[in-house]
């Protein structure tokens, strides 16, 4: 984890960040870049699917995921949750904190 200065760099390494096409003042966001480690991305997305179906998901994350499912669909929600879990893992491994279920869903 010391290789990355921010959680965003880890997400980029896994290829779980949205692509962007910028031209002047116009900014367009696309799907995930799929650049980086494919196995890491695959296992992260699988963990997102498992977490969405788990009854042990924290209430704040469950509420966030359900809003995303309604707004964007199951597949996008699974990838977004995978990225969110990767950011949490980075934070906890980097700082040495212990997981707290009351931790807010928004990072």
Plain-language structure description:
The chain has 107 residues and is of the alpha+beta class. Strands 1-2 form a two-stranded antiparallel sheet. It is built from 4 helices and 2 strands; from the N terminus they run αββααα. The chain is 56% helix and 12% strand. The model has no long low-confidence stretch (mean pLDDT 89).
What tags apply to this protein structure?
107 residues, alpha+beta, two-stranded antiparallel sheet, 4 helices, 2 strands
Instruction: Give helix and strand order, one letter per element, not per position.
Output: HEEHHH
**Major sheet attributes:** 2 strands, antiparallel
Report the structural category.
alpha+beta
Overall strand count: 2
- Using only C-alpha atoms, the radius of gyration works out to 14 Å
Overall shape:
globular
Within the largest sheet, what's the order of strands?
Answer: 1-2
| Poorly predicted runs | none
Task: State the share of residues found in helices, binned by percent.
Answer: 55-70%
**C-alpha termini separation:** 18 Å
Helix count from the secondary structure assignment: 4
What share of the residues does DSSP label as strand, in percent?
A: 5-15%
Mean pLDDT across every amino acid position: 89
